[in-house]
Design brief:
Structural class: mainly alpha
Number of helices: 3
Number of strands: 0
Strand content: under 5%
Shape: rod-shaped
Order of helices and strands: HHH
Protein name: DUF1640 domain-containing protein
Distance between the termini: 74 Å
Helix content: over 70%
Radius of gyration: 33 Å
Transmembrane segments: 89-113
Keywords: Membrane, Transmembrane, Transmembrane helix
């Protein structure tokens, strides 16, 4: 998981949310059909729905989504920290350059201001 980018993790979360919505919708459709259909047909559909829900562990799925969200947050923090360090480095380089230039100019002025002899 460490190699995934935040957009890839967000895409995975979106896919998992979509699958959860589809399963919830299917369960709601089965409940509606149960009210309209005969008892034998409803039992068969309910058995199929239960087998599908047994394949999907919703709690594990939600825990996995929470983990992915935490990892996305950590990646965002890491990116912000890296960006801050980069700016600090270039600021330091700029200050060193300005200091070097000022020192060079002062030494040149002092050299040219000396009286000959």
């Amino acid at each position: 998981m460490a190699g995934k980018s935040p957009t890839e993790l967000n895409d995975l979360i979106a896919v998992l949310n979509t699958e959860l919505a589809v399963l919830t919708k299917d369960l709601d459709l089965l409940r509606d059909a149960f009210g309209r259909a005969e008892l034998a047909e409803a039992r068969e559909r309910l058995t199929r729905a239960e087998s599908l829900l047994a394949l999907v562990d919703i709690r594990a799925l939600l825990a996995h989504i929470a983990t992915l969200q935490e990892q996305v947050a950590e990646l965002k923090k890491w990116r912000e920290e890296t960006e801050r360090k980069r700016w600090q480095f270039w600021l330091g380089v700029g200050i060193c350059g300005i200091t070097f230039t000022a020192n060079l100019v002062m030494n040149l002025v002092l050299f040219l201001a000396r009286k000959p002899g």
